[in-house]
Specification:
The complex is a heterodimer of chains A (257) and B (262). Chain A has 9 helices and 9 strands. Chain A has 257 residues and is α/β, with parallel strands linked by helices. Chain A has a domain of 177 residues: 3-Layer(aba) Sandwich (Rossmann fold), CATH 3.40.50.300. In chain A, the strands form 2 sheets. A 6-stranded mixed beta sheet of chain A has the order 5-6-7-3-8-9, with helices on both faces. A 3-stranded antiparallel beta sheet of chain A has the order 2-1-4. The longest helix of chain A is centred in the C-terminal third of the chain and has 18 residues. The radius of gyration of chain A is 19 Å and the shape is globular. Chain B is mainly alpha-helical and 262 residues long. Classes of the chains: A alpha/beta (257), B mainly alpha (262). Chains A and B meet through helix 2, strand 5 and helix 3 of A and helix 1 and helix 5 of B.
């Protein structure tokens, strides 16, 4: 479902050092990254800040073009077929909404139906279902800017799933959520993956997400993949009885040495 | 694409209609502010009979056609020069994950009825000026052609301004020099400016084809700069060329897009 083959993304940063002199520096946000995600998998993508997680997500969704290597998502090259790919994947950014700030949630969903050209009956069905599961009913008429973070996240997830995508990509979906909302979100994602077979890739700093949701974990650091395997295999990299926090801390700091 | 645009515009209009008073005041506001341009022209004519060799109705005609073109382009696509704000707010990323061209999404973003204020004012000026000019029917056909080409040219300038911001995220004001500067420039007959500037807006950034060159034809006026007669019919060519260049620039910019670090 997702194939990444030796993908890299570098940025040229130029800094003014004198009146006219500029210093150019190349930063590799991601280098030589390769992995495959099969249909129906639930994969957690971990890494310290600035490791290249968001850059990877942006390359998978077609927002950023890779500077080297190849990527295929749902059978399409994200850079070349960005709009076609958009119909097959759902994307959620935890840090910011993809909804229209000033529009009521209901209007946003209606717009999405038109933008993605979803059949009216199917849309109704799916929206009713998501409204019930995520409890959107009470704030459907509220403009997005007036929603609480938890409500907004539920709105964003709904928006990403209305066109029934085969792949769901989530960039820190539980960031800032309280314990109850977080548990509800995790339950929802787990059911979505189990019952509908939706392939899920999520980045997170919350190790609870990893323990409770993911069968497979990938760790990226300094733009390279440093671990790829099951959660149990991840635990096995550290002495027994270590907490998951310890395991990940070891992994993050090992790359420094 | 047109369907998507209309749909999005309609949704924004409905959202705006929740505040009818603010909508009405803003529309009247833009109408009044743009009417000040015209008052400036009238004041000039209080002191002189002609401006750059053109009478008051002729100047109003040149002003009217340029402003109809500009306000149409501004109404429909003016928002594409807000790229750097979208990039910084991260909303541009959200547009890229939708199955609709980000150009259309940006153009229609926050579509509001008050943008009509300027257009209405420009149309009123044109309607007052045209009957006073006695343009023969053999030349009047050029009026819709020049308004259309002018709209395309201004849209292209807005697009270039947006495309430039893929490179200069920190300096969106650079683009304003060409968009709003271009609109201000075309409000007066080009004969009030120097030869070099006129050559520049004829052969480099073809703003002279918005109203000046085709306007000379409609008015049956001699070219004070003595440029070739056929240039009066070159507006479609200029619009096509600039349109193509701006589309290429936009695509090139999109490929180079770097997003923000989050």
């Amino acid at each position: 479902m997702i194939e990444v083959h030796q993908a890299g993304r570098s940025f040229t940063i130029s800094r003014r050092t004198g009146l006219l002199r500029r210093e150019r520096r190349v930063v590799h946000a991601v280098r030589d990254l390769s992995f495959t995600v099969e249909a129906g998998e639930f994969v957690g993508y971990l890494g310290p800040n600035g490791a290249g997680k968001s850059t990877t997500i942006k390359m998978l969704t077609g927002i950023l073009a890779p500077t080297s290597g190849h990527i295929q998502v749902a059978g399409l090259d994200p850079t070349k077929h960005r709009t076609a790919l958009a119909r097959r994947i759902g994307v959620v950014f935890g840090q910011r909404t993809t909804l229209w700030w000033d529009l009521p949630l209901r209007d946003s969903f209606e717009l999405i139906r038109h933008l993605y050209k979803v059949d009216r009956v199917k849309h109704r069905e799916r929206l009713d279902q998501l409204t019930e599961v995520l409890g959107l009913g009470e704030f459907m008429r509220t403009p997005v800017r007036q929603l609480s973070l938890g409500q907004r996240m539920r709105g964003d997830i709904t928006a990403a799933l209305l066109h029934d995508p085969a792949v769901l990509v989530l960039d820190e979906p539980t960031i800032g959520l309280d314990v109850v909302s977080k548990a509800a979100m995790r339950g929802f994602l787990r059911d979505l993956n189990a019952e509908q077979g939706t392939t899920v890739l999520l980045t997170t700093h919350d190790l609870g997400d990893i323990e409770r949701l993911c069968r497979r974990v990938m760790v990226i650091d300094h733009g390279r993949l440093t671990f790829d395997g099951t959660v149990d295999a991840l635990r096995a990299t550290a002495p027994e009885e270590s907490s998951i926090e310890d395991v990940v801390t070891r992994l993050y700091t090992a790359a420094e040495k | 694409m047109v369907r998507t645009y209309t749909l999005l515009a309609w949704t924004w209009l409905r959202a705006g209609a929740q505040y009818p008073l603010s909508m009405a005041l803003l529309t009247i506001g833009t109408f009044v502010v743009s009417a000040l341009d015209l008052i400036a022209i009238w004041i000039i004519f209080e002191h002189t009979g002609t401006l750059g060799g053109f009478t008051l109705p002729e100047v109003m005609f040149l002003y009217g056609t340029a402003m109809v073109s500009f306000s149409l382009a501004d109404l429909l696509f003016g928002n594409v020069d807000k790229l750097s704000a979208h990039v910084r707010a991260g909303t541009f990323d959200s547009m890229l994950i939708r199955p609709v061209s980000p150009f259309v999404q940006m153009a229609v973003d926050r579509f509001a009825v008050q943008r009509l204020g300027k257009l209405v004012q420009a149309v009123v000026v044109l309607v007052i000026a045209l009957p006073q000019l006695d343009v023969p029917s053999s030349r009047v056909w050029m009026v819709p052609v020049m308004v259309f080409c002018g709209t395309v040219i201004f849209t292209a300038v807005f697009t270039l301004g947006g495309a430039l911001q893929f490179l200069l995220t920190d300096a969106p004001e650079v683009a304003n020099a060409f968009t709003y500067g271009g609109s201000a420039l075309t409000q007066y007959p080009l004969s009030v400016y120097g030869t070099d500037l006129v050559r520049g807006v004829t052969f480099v950034l073809p703003l002279a084809f918005v109203n000046w060159q085709p306007g000379l034809f409609v008015l049956g006026h001699e070219d004070p700069f003595g440029l070739p007669y056929w240039l009066r019919f070159a507006a479609p060519l200029a619009a096509l060329l600039l349109g193509a260049i701006s589309a290429l620039a936009w695509r090139a910019g999109l490929r180079r897009y770097r997003s923000t670090g989050s």
